[in-house]
Amino acid sequence: MNVSAKMVYLMRGLPACGKSHRARRLAGPDGVVLETDAYFYTQVGDDPASYDYRDELLPKAREWNLARFREAIAHGVSPIVVDRGNGLNAETREYAGYAVEHGYEVELAEPDSPWWLEVRVLLKYKQYVADELFDAWAQKLADATRDTHRVPVATIRRWMASWRHDITVQGILDCGQEDA
Prior knowledge:
Distance between the termini: 31 Å
Number of strands: 4
CATH topology of the domain at 7-111 and 165-179: Rossmann fold
Mean pLDDT: 90
CATH architecture of the domain at 7-111 and 165-179: 3-Layer(aba) Sandwich
Low-confidence stretches: none
Strand order of the largest sheet: 2-3-1-4
Number of helices: 8
Order of helices and strands: EHEHHEHEHHHH
CATH superfamily of the domain at 7-111 and 165-179: P-loop containing nucleotide triphosphate hydrolases
Radius of gyration: 16 Å
């Protein structure tokens, strides 16, 4: 990595695995962490300490975070850490493409917590792992989000089933382009 380069990190990982902790470390004192979930703290409800998630507001929350991202790019902020799932989808492609178009380097980043490192290996070799082990991890991660984001076990389990360990920035940039 070029130390003087303008950087965008796309955080990947499951809930309660340390994405936000790693994101803050990557941002350091000069960068910014942009998290869609922040919308449900700052833009919904009266208490900024309360996570007021409403499914019907998710599209608006995503637009809000993308607008903040574009503003940070316009001001030359670096590093910018996009703290979300960041898989192969149009939304992630929009973040990555916008950053590249504006001269930023883009890297994928994951949590570095011991439990994420264990789950990550299981996800990589999921075809060889018993469903009960994934169910137990999904329950553990859901329990860990009980006081914050309250992510249901079924949602985490679905994300585990669809997890791709081989995603690259180029793969994200190319996502959906074959149909264009």
